[in-house]
UniProtKB/TrEMBL annotation:
<feature type="transmembrane region" description="Helical">
    <location>
        <begin position="74"/>
        <end position="95"/>
    </location>
</feature>
<keyword id="KW-1133">Transmembrane helix</keyword>
<feature type="transmembrane region" description="Helical">
    <location>
        <begin position="241"/>
        <end position="262"/>
    </location>
</feature>
<dbReference type="InterPro" id="IPR018710">
    <property type="entry name" value="DUF2232"/>
</dbReference>
<feature type="transmembrane region" description="Helical">
    <location>
        <begin position="216"/>
        <end position="235"/>
    </location>
</feature>
<dbReference type="Pfam" id="PF09991">
    <property type="entry name" value="DUF2232"/>
</dbReference>
<feature type="transmembrane region" description="Helical">
    <location>
        <begin position="42"/>
        <end position="68"/>
    </location>
</feature>
<feature type="transmembrane region" description="Helical">
    <location>
        <begin position="177"/>
        <end position="195"/>
    </location>
</feature>
<feature type="transmembrane region" description="Helical">
    <location>
        <begin position="6"/>
        <end position="30"/>
    </location>
</feature>
<keyword id="KW-0472">Membrane</keyword>
<feature type="transmembrane region" description="Helical">
    <location>
        <begin position="107"/>
        <end position="129"/>
    </location>
</feature>
<protein>
    <submittedName>
        <fullName>Predicted membrane protein</fullName>
    </submittedName>
</protein>
<feature type="transmembrane region" description="Helical">
    <location>
        <begin position="274"/>
        <end position="295"/>
    </location>
</feature>
<keyword id="KW-0812">Transmembrane</keyword>
Length: 317
């Protein structure tokens, strides 16, 4: 590796670690933005300078977090930020020669890797928050009760919430927590991968051609993972929560396939702009549209109606 690339990788790791530390202080909105963009320097390094540089940036950032924080923070950073960035950028740059053409690693399989990392992170977060259903329930009830007494009480006209309502909110929060963690992690990984790809493409440093995202597809094996995870999410106890942590990022991935289907099928249509604008607006205000897109993505993965007469992006097995 050239010395310039090595120095840039070290700098990227330093920037990522500083952003990670900064995400714990300041205004709430600023903290959210910093948290979402913490991995971006490593993704930029991986796509622009290669996997080895991404590995150096990731190791540097993890070491700095260990020094300025503690081993637990370094572990969380490594699993949630560093490792996904290195692996996903490495996979995105994989290719092989087939005849006279170079075949690049399917984007669908990169997204599967992101989903696996997201599930692992969500399960780790659940373990750190308690590790068993009773501890998690007590922790969430304390948080909900504190919010009701300190924040909600200051809102004019806020309804009175008693112990029974707090218990109900706690149960709802507990069941949705692994889904929220999985979706947040998946969204963060894919946002940074896409943003880094666009930046490196604009700079001329992207080491692969930009994929046609309207043809994005998932491997058929991911269908079984999602269906099994959803079925197990109805199991009582921590096992059901862990299954939800797996189901969430894979649902996200299939919703992206559904979006790709809409983009593909509306090509050349005079209604394309209206349809896509309405769809994305609906996603913001009507989250259940995401579930419909996930079902659409599942159907496309099984039946390949979008790609009738031509091979899908990924193999069916």
């Amino acid at each position: 590796m050239q010395s310039k690339a090595f120095i840039l990788a070290l700098a990227a790791g330093l920037i990522s670690a500083v952003v990670f530390a900064s995400a714990t202080t300041g205004a709430f909105l600023l903290r959210i933005i910093l948290f979402l963009l913490t991995p971006l320097p490593i993704y930029l390094t991986g796509l622009g300078l290669g996997p080895a540089a991404a590995g150096i940036a990731a190791i540097t950032a993890t070491a700095i977090v260990l020094l300025i924080a503690n081993p637990l923070a370094a572990l969380v950073y490594a699993i949630s930020t560093a490792a996904p960035a290195v692996v996903c950028t490495r996979l995105a740059l994989l290719s092989r020669e087939e005849g006279d053409e170079r075949q690049w690693y399917p984007i669908g399989r990169v997204v599967v890797a992101a989903a696996i990392f997201s599930a692992v992170f969500a399960m780790l977060a659940l373990m750190l928050m308690g590790g068993d259903l009773e501890t998690l329930t007590k922790l969430l009830r304390t948080v909900v009760e504190s919010f009701v007494k300190t924040e909600l009480a200051q809102v004019p006209g806020a309804p009175a919430i008693g112990p029974s309502e707090i218990d109900s909110i706690t149960r709802s929060t507990l069941s949705s927590l692994p889904w929220a963690l999985g979706l947040l992690s998946m969204g963060t990984i894919l946002l940074n991968l896409w943003l880094a790809g666009r930046i490196t493409l604009a700079s001329g440093r992207l080491q692969r051609p930009w994929p046609d995202l309207a043809e994005f597809a998932m491997p058929a094996s991911a269908v079984f993972v999602l269906l099994i995870a959803i079925a197990l999410s109805f199991v009582d106890g921590i096992a059901g929560l862990f299954a939800g942590a797996v189901a969430a990022p894979f649902t996200f991935a299939f919703a992206l396939v559904g979006l790709a289907v809409v983009h593909s099928l509306t090509r050349g249509s005079p209604w394309r702009t209206f349809i896509l604008t309405a769809l994305y607006t609906g996603l913001v205000f009507l989250p259940y549209i995401g579930l419909l897109l996930a079902v659409t993505g599942l159907a496309e993965t099984v039946f390949h109606y979008r790609t009738a007469g031509r091979p899908p992006e990924t193999p069916s097995t």
